[in-house]
Amino acid sequence: MSLVSKMKAVAQKATGRRKPLLLTVKEAFYLTPNMIRVVFSGPELDGFPVGCEGGNCKLMLPEPGETKDAFDARLSGGPAPVRRTYTVRHYDADTQELAIDFVAHGDNGPASAWASSAKPGSFLGFAGPSGPKVTNFDADWYLVAADPSAIPVAAATLEAMPSDAKGVAIFEITTDADQQEIDAPDGVALHWLVHPNPQSPSDAQEQFIRSLEWPEGRVQTCIAGESGVIRSLRDFLRNEAQVPRDQTYISGYWKIGLIEDEHQQFKRNES
């Protein structure tokens, strides 16, 4: 255990909880016209769990112009920063580099605004991550579907699959140029559906899935995105396709017209 890891362990033991990491940006760039990749690096990532791609995390965002020292003090118990939920896209333990992808929609949202202006030396708070959403890959066939908000979890799941996996992956994106390189198994067919306005309802994923010739054998899913789409797909999977719940990861990541705090309350009310 390194000195940094020992200090973290001592602090966690003393307080009963782990202080969020204060991460520093190594680089930030547009992966596609509507997706920003931010790469963090530094000794704070010593001991970061390997194999957590696809797990969710909480990002705590500094105010514009806030100094690193002032923000660090807030992480230690000052006024709580704005928090948003994101997905670990990639972590390289050898280089201690962590990549997180942000949907780029300008200043319409604190996380997007932060990512749009991120540069080497920028910083934020980090808590987590959880484990991957899909960990057992023993199905006969896989169904993956995502809108831009869920491409990171879908891509991480595809890249974790065995090389002989078979299935279909459906990505709903804003423009053709938003297609990404994903190291999916050769037996999984990738389909990219263009929906120019993510703030308007879309049934393109559901219609595509309904048009599929449903395969024989056991199906496993990784599906996430806008809550209205997810509600319809969940109903189809459970009541028509009759996919068992324990073979189904399906989750609403956001809802048209709601910010994250409102969406989380909406999900709690639904459960």
Question: How does this structure look, described?
Answer:
With 271 residues, the protein is α/β, with parallel strands linked by helices. It folds into 2 domains: 3-127, Translation factors (Elongation Factor Tu (Ef-tu), domain 3, Beta Barrel); 141-270, 3-Layer(aba) Sandwich (Rossmann fold). Helix content is 27%, strand content 31%. It is built from 7 helices and 11 strands. It has helices at 3-15, 68-75, 110-117, 151-160, 204-211, 227-240, 260-270, and strands at residues 21-32, 35-41, 56-61, 82-92, 97-103, 123-127, 141-146, 167-173, 188-194, 219-226, 248-254. Strands 1-2-5-4-3-6 form a 6-stranded antiparallel beta barrel. Strands 9-8-7-10-11 form a 5-stranded parallel sheet, sandwiched between helices. Helix 4 (151-160) links the parallel strand 7 (141-146) and strand 8 (167-173). The longest helix has 14 residues, at 227-240. The radius of gyration is 19 Å and the shape is globular. The N and C termini lie far apart (41 Å).
Compile the SSE list and pairings.
Layout: H1 3-15, E1 21-32, E2 35-41, E3 56-61, H2 68-75, E4 82-92, E5 97-103, H3 110-117, E6 123-127, E7 141-146, H4 151-160, E8 167-173, E9 188-194, H5 204-211, E10 219-226, H6 227-240, E11 248-254, H7 260-270
Parallel strand pairs: 7-8, 7-10, 8-9, 10-11
Antiparallel strand pairs: 1-2, 1-6, 2-5, 3-4, 3-6, 4-5
